[in-house]
């Protein structure tokens, strides 16, 4: 990670060295060129390959602890293999056990100048290591690798075999085109086994993505169908309810029509009564006006007669 520092590197080296030296366990330390963040990483590994230790990597307290644990181990060894018990001899015993039990595996690409420069700067990478050169994989190896990586993918056997064949053809055709590219333009395009593995992993990733997308679309389609079927079922139920209510609706319509006829007849009677009442009201008003005129006349005569009587 980005936060990994030289101090973290040294802590990891100390933990691995102590596991191999104190525990007497065979430990494999795999290190690739993609993990080289600092040149000091290779320098430390070169020192381990040369002498079995990294100078001054252990502080005094840790070194003392290692010596004490080696003293216990030394006591359990045969007499002819025991040391003189001095701290120097016990620590050298620890270094010897690190050389015997710690196996460093370096995976580096020969592409470019980096590999060549590292070998020149740290000769122990050649002198103290057994070099295995991985050449281009043959056709049967490509098929076996593709079959191994695709056997966990859910698909039919015939389809899986076709995918294996396609991966092999893609890789071999790319390698052929790279050779033509080098012959015509004098430029390298490296097609390595890592490229083949990346091709297979890319295929698996894309297949998973497409299957996931199709599964989501299928699920949406199924949910839509379920909603449409539910709506159709509700509509059918409403239709049945309407058919069942049809006689009641017809009966209610007849009752409404009869009530409207009664209301219209009653309205005519009310209108006639209103006319009669209006006529009676007019006669009453006329009589009231006449009575008021007589009253006013009597009041005027009375007003004239009262002073005379007094």
What is shown here, in short?
It contains nine helices and two strands, in the order H-E-H-H-H-E-H-H-H-H-H. With 310 residues, it is mainly alpha-helical. The protein has a two-stranded parallel ribbon with strand order 1-2.
Question: Spans with pLDDT under 50 lasting ≥5 residues?
Answer: none
What spatial form do the alpha-carbon principal axes imply? elongated
Largest sheet: 2 strands, parallel
The number of helical runs is 9
| Proportion of beta-strand residues | under 5%
The number of E-state strands comes to 2
State the strand order across the main sheet.
Answer: 1-2
Order of helices and strands: HEHHHEHHHHH
Q: What would you call the structural class? A: mainly alpha
Radius of gyration: 54 Å
List the helices and strands and how they pair.
Layout: H1 6-23, E1 27-32, H2 39-51, H3 60-75, H4 87-101, E2 102-107, H5 114-121, H6 124-127, H7 139-150, H8 157-185, H9 193-309
Parallel strand pairs: 1-2
């Amino acid at each position: 990670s980005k936060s990994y520092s030289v101090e973290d590197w040294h802590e990891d080296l100390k933990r691995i060295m102590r596991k191999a030296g104190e525990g007497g366990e065979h430990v494999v330390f795999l290190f690739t060129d993609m993990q080289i963040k600092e040149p000091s990483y290779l320098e430390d590994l070169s020192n381990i390959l040369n002498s079995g230790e990294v100078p001054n990597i252990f502080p005094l307290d840790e070194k003392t602890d290692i010596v004490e644990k080696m003293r216990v181990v030394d006591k359990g060894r045969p007499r002819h293999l025991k040391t003189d018990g001095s701290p120097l001899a016990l620590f050298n015993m620890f270094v010897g056990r690190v050389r015997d039990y710690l196996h460093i595996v370096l995976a580096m690409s020969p592409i470019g100048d980096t590999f060549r420069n590292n070998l020149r700067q740290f000769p122990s990478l050649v002198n103290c290591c057994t070099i295995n050169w991985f050449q281009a994989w043959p056709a049967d190896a490509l098929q076996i690798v593709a079959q191994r990586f695709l056997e966990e993918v859910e698909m039919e056997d015939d389809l899986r075999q076709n995918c294996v064949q396609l991966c092999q053809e893609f890789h071999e055709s790319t390698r052929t085109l790279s050779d033509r590219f080098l012959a015509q333009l004098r430029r390298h395009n490296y097609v390595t086994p890592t490229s083949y593995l990346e091709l297979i992993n890319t295929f698996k990733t894309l297949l998973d993505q497409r299957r996931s997308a199709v599964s989501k679309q299928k699920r949406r389609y199924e949910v839509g169908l379920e909603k449409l079927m539910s709506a159709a079922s509700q509509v059918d139920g409403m239709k049945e309810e309407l058919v069942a209510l049809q006689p009641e609706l017809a009966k209610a319509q007849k009752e409404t029509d009869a009530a409207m006829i009664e209301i219209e007849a009653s309205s005519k009677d009310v209108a006639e009564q209103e006319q009669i009442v209006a006529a009676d009201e007019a006669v009453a008003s006329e009589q009231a006006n006449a009575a008021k005129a007589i009253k006013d006349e009597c009041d005027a005569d009375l007003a004239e007669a009262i002073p005379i009587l007094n």
